[in-house]
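Need residues for this backbone.
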């Protein structure tokens, strides 16, 4: 059950971007996710997306079904990527 007030604020417990996640353990899957981060394509939080247990896939978000949030882990990774990519961007310390 989702307990975060604002999901974009912090990654969920089973976020693909947390160390040790199944997604990071699979080099091919992790490469695809990193490409999404670098391209800027939104990566939606899996919580709240329709899931098909037979295929193991999440359906694409649909605005007409309610609010769809971006993944907090993706958002953190995207900001880190942009900071690293832009020469004059302030670096976190």
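Answer:
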């Amino acid at each position: 059950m989702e307990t975060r007030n604002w999901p974009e604020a912090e990654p969920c417990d089973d976020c693909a971007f947390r160390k040790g996640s199944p997604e990071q353990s699979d080099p091919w899957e992790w490469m695809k996710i990193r490409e999404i981060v670098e391209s800027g394509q939104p990566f939606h939080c899996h919580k709240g997306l329709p899931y098909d247990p037979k295929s193991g896939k999440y359906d694409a978000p649909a605005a007409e079904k309610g609010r769809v949030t971006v993944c907090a882990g993706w958002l953190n990774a995207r900001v880190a990527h942009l900071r690293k990519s832009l020469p004059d961007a302030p670096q976190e310390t």
